[in-house]
Design a protein that fits this description.
The complex is a heterodimer of chains A (about 280) and B (about 140).
Chain A (H helix, E strand, L loop, with lengths): L8 E4 L3 H10 L3 E3 L5 H6 L7 E4 L9 E4 L2 E5 L4 H6 L1 H6 L1 H8 L4 H4 L4 H7 L7 H6 L3 E6 L2 E6 L4 E3 L2 E2 L6 E7 L5 E7 L10 E7 L4 E5 L6 E2 L1 H8 L4 H11 L10 H18 L6
Helix pairs in contact in A: 9-10, 10-11
Chain B lengths: L1 E4 L2 E4 L8 H8 L18 E4 L2 E4 L12 E3 L9 H8 L9 H8 L8 H7 L11 H10 L5
Parallel strand pairs in B: 1-5
Antiparallel strand pairs in B: 1-2, 3-4, 3-5
The chains are: A alpha+beta (about 280), B alpha+beta (about 140).
Amino acid sequence: MKTAMSEVDVRSARSLDEALTIMRDETRVPVAGATDVYVAANFGTLEARRLLDIWAVDELRGISLSGDTIVIGALATYTSLIKSPIIVERLPMLVDASRLVGGPQIQNRGTVGGNIANGSPAGDSLPVFSAVDATIVLRSASGERRVGFNDFYTGYRATVMKPDELIVAVEVAPVEGKQWFRKVGTRAAQAISKIVVAAVRAPSPKISFGSVAPTVVRVPRTEQALASGASIEEAGRVLADEIAPIDDLRSTADYRRRVSVNLLNRFWSDTGTTSS
Amino acid sequence: MQFTLNGESTDIDANPSARLLDVLREECGLTGTKEGCGEGECGACTVLIAGEPVCSCLVPFSQVAGTEVVTIEGLGDDHPLQHHFMQEVGAQCGICTPGMIMAALSLGDNPTLDEIKVALAGNLCRCTGYSAIYRAIMKWKGMPA
């Protein structure tokens, strides 16, 4: 059987130690649920010819609490996030985001680590982690380090990760304030975002947009305007100036700018009644 | 590589990088599973792994080792849901039908119409307008439709 994948070499790791050793000794692209990597492969745009399958590394699958901090294993799937009492209770906007990633088939395989590593500016979970200032835990055979989520991307699909590192977990400190998530796509299900936003209503609001820049972005000037008591109309003008969306196959820059301002208004009115 | 296919222990020698879809169709001769979009949008290639619907066009064969895979052939020719799809004309061109049925199998008892729609959100049909498909599933679940 000769297929598009015949030229691709896959090794499988059964444990994190084995995976990190292979990543140290060989140049391989890690693949978890394959919902991005195999799309690229099917379309002939996958450059990598050597993959490391880490799907079986069960120690990266957990969702737990360490003190008050939520620790989400890199291989946690969207389905597991939707079902997790910890996430439902403490980070409900991540449940909202997870429900809108593809259909159930994708939610059953797609992982948090994969969404982050893939680094699409339209990745649905990314604004959530950005808005809550999550921490990404990276590990290699030589050790572990933590990177603030908002310091992780250096450009379009570019990150601070080294070739031998794996994302092993995402940590989220307790979130104070009302969480809000919204995705605008072409249809209710199975859409790739034209605009995706996650926000937290607190004395210092935190707002993060996807699909308006080469990476997921916080909008600090807009946040500052709201924190200092500007009207939502003023904040909307700041936002329109602060983001830099582009025309692409899914939408136009003008549409994205207009909808982003509308979403900011909606966030503010939806979360305005109480502060918790 | 060993796995359970439609209830039977199976040993297939294929490239670990191969798509499960290709292994099923080309190596196992099970052509009921269809290829539609090749990007996880359409759900035509849906099979169950450990009881969960997945897009077999996006599953590396390496991830199938030791698991339980069920395809449309695993239902036999006399499954009640198949009969309801025929009676309600839930299939027209038929390409989406195996995936629709496999996705519907993940539903629990007494689903709401909304839950049915969510369970099938990853399956596209360009013929039926979905109503006949929902009706077939509702009748299978003993709901008024």
